[in-house]
């Protein structure tokens, strides 16, 4: 009876200091960010943000510092939270935004929910899915799955989700975050097929905050990647160079991690599972490759074309 909602918060947040509890569902989750610097004395300089929603719309929620190691892995996409004693801040203008699965959902972009260990100390409760009631009006998690046959027609930077059977996974590689920087991004290339095209998905997978999954991607696993971005048309022959890269909000799942994930109800995921049942495992294993150097995009065949 004392709950508020995100729409009401946006209208009244300037005029109040204390807010009623919130009941929200997590729709998107970012990677964990470390912002430590030698001159700043913060015990646990971590930050992660989530997009949460109720019946009125969607808003960003930021998890700060020592709450990150305590809560980050428990807060999954689809998790329902009851929040109390949280703070409301003006939104950080430069952060990335995931593309919502439901394009009709209202977005409250001017403010964000801030969860801190003090000032005030936030109370976080995870509501088990079996206790979530339909009358609460919480939105379901929706996805934007595409098939490989649809990929070539999508515009550059389009956001999508994919599922496929891994046929190739490369070694982990590093790229400098900035020139002359000592910070590196860790990434690996993978190919996945879904039976709708002769071509595989070419996936550039940066290490997210899921090291246990990133290290265990191997051929013949069912791979789901969410919030991927299309990179289109690098050369004069764009059909050969379209690939997908992870975004700040990407989540990666492999065989063994799929159970209970919201995407298992998606129609395209079910179609993919039906296709895999018609395939011979022995035939597919013959086509798989692991490791080695993977230059991409591939250089032209001759120096003249180069």
From TrEMBL:
<dbReference type="InterPro" id="IPR012340">
    <property type="entry name" value="NA-bd_OB-fold"/>
</dbReference>
<dbReference type="Pfam" id="PF17659">
    <property type="entry name" value="RADX"/>
</dbReference>
<dbReference type="GO" id="GO:0003697">
    <property type="term" value="F:single-stranded DNA binding"/>
</dbReference>
<protein>
    <submittedName>
        <fullName>RADX protein</fullName>
    </submittedName>
</protein>
<dbReference type="InterPro" id="IPR040893">
    <property type="entry name" value="RADX"/>
</dbReference>
